[in-house]
Design a protein that fits this description.
Blueprint: H1 3-16, H2 29-42, E1 49-55, E2 60-62, H3 67-72, H4 81-86, H5 93-108, E3 118-127, E4 133-145, E5 150-159, E6 171-175, H6 200-210, H7 215-222, H8 226-240, H9 245-255
Antiparallel strand pairs: 1-2, 1-5, 3-4, 3-6, 4-5
């Protein structure tokens, strides 16, 4: 890596060092594995994706999934943090540092009992092995932590190049189980709770629409009728000021609604 890239790596590592002072002494491998799969089921994937576990203290990736080869062309063993930061699009690097700073600030101030009720998401571009840039929706949840430190996150990167081919990266903090969300966060130092445009049922349906489920598939998953699903879809399109499902999906990702 060049000196500039090395400095970028050090800047990122400095951010993460504010939430961990030591490595996990009891990683609980079995619990970590179970949590990993359960968390994956709770994260949506509107396309091809790969996942990994990020060790915050070591500032390194663990358990990189084979899906990274399908999206970026690299083998899992080729992916480490310095390389990841090296192939990050130069224009997205300032956003990356800004978003990671906001994330660490948020979790440092968060009560312990609410840690599991939040996920972070933002987008960025990585240079694939063939030289083209791929836009990824990055989602992360905490999976290994205690009252003093954050040790590991589960991260999933989904290819959304077909949905958001251009535009600046956006960042959202999404509350689960009734916790407040903060969508499309600006650079201001204070977080403002987002007005919830959709009802809880509409948000559940929107998530399934983004995952490319049909009305019948949504109805089966939510145990409601296809007629009810279609009525909700019309309301969601109206509230989103979108004319087509494709436009709805694009806006949902750009605004961080899901």
């Amino acid at each position: 890596m060049s000196n500039q890239q090395s400095q970028f790596y050090l800047s990122a590592k400095k951010i993460w060092s504010t939430v961990v002072k030591e490595d996990s002494t009891h990683p609980h491998e079995l619990k970590l594995e179970l949590d990993l799969h359960k968390r994956l089921l709770n994260l949506f994937q509107p396309g091809y994706y790969y996942y990994y576990v990020f060790n915050i203290f070591q500032a390194e990736f663990e358990v990189v999934s084979p899906g990274v080869t399908n999206i970026l062309g690299y083998l899992p063993e080729e992916i480490n943090l310095p390389f990841f930061l090296e192939i990050l699009h130069p224009d997205d690097k300032p956003y990356f540092l800004q978003f990671e700073t906001r994330i660490t600030e948020f979790f440092k101030a968060l009560p312990f009992e609410k840690i599991a009720k939040y996920k972070m998401q933002y987008d960025f571009r990585l240079r694939a092995k063939n030289g083209r840039y791929v836009r990824l929706l990055h989602q992360a949840v905490q999976i290994d932590y205690d009252e003093s430190n954050y040790y590991r996150t589960l991260d999933i990167d989904t290819d959304i190049t077909h949905i958001k081919p251009d535009g600046i990266p956006t960042f959202s903090i999404i509350g689960l189980d009734g916790e407040p969300s903060y969508y499309n966060i600006a650079e201001a130092n204070t977080l403002t709770q987002s007005f919830d445009l959709f009802t809880r049922r509409e948000r559940a349906i929107l998530k399934l629409i983004v995952e490319n489920n049909s009305s019948k598939e949504i109805a089966d998953q939510l145990f409601i009728s296809p007629h009810t699903v279609n009525a909700h879809r019309k309301n969601i399109l109206r509230k989103a000021n979108a004319q087509t499902p494709v436009e709805l999906v694009r806006k949902a990702l750009q605004e961080g609604w899901v």
